[in-house]
Design goal:
It contains one helix and three strands; from the N terminus they run ββαβ. The chain is mainly beta. It has a domain at 25-54. The chain has a three-stranded antiparallel beta sheet.
């Protein structure tokens, strides 16, 4: 299982010039539900971190 972390502002990734920005990051953690429960909410009322079943962000 994994967790998708959405950033308030997209962040730089591996691109050394900072042209490519990423709105989220999917990570594999031992207890994704715990991470998702402890994450802050964002402006639209959703969670900043949500659990994703197979580690692949399904876009929801």
């Amino acid at each position: 299982m994994g967790a998708c972390i959405r950033f308030h502002h997209p962040v730089r990734g591996i691109d050394p010039f900072g042209f490519v920005r990423h709105p989220s990051l999917t990570v594999t953690v031992a207890e994704p539900r715990v991470l998702a429960r402890q994450s802050p909410t964002i402006a639209d009322g959703s969670r900043a971190v949500r659990e994703v079943g197979d580690g692949v962000d399904d876009g929801t």
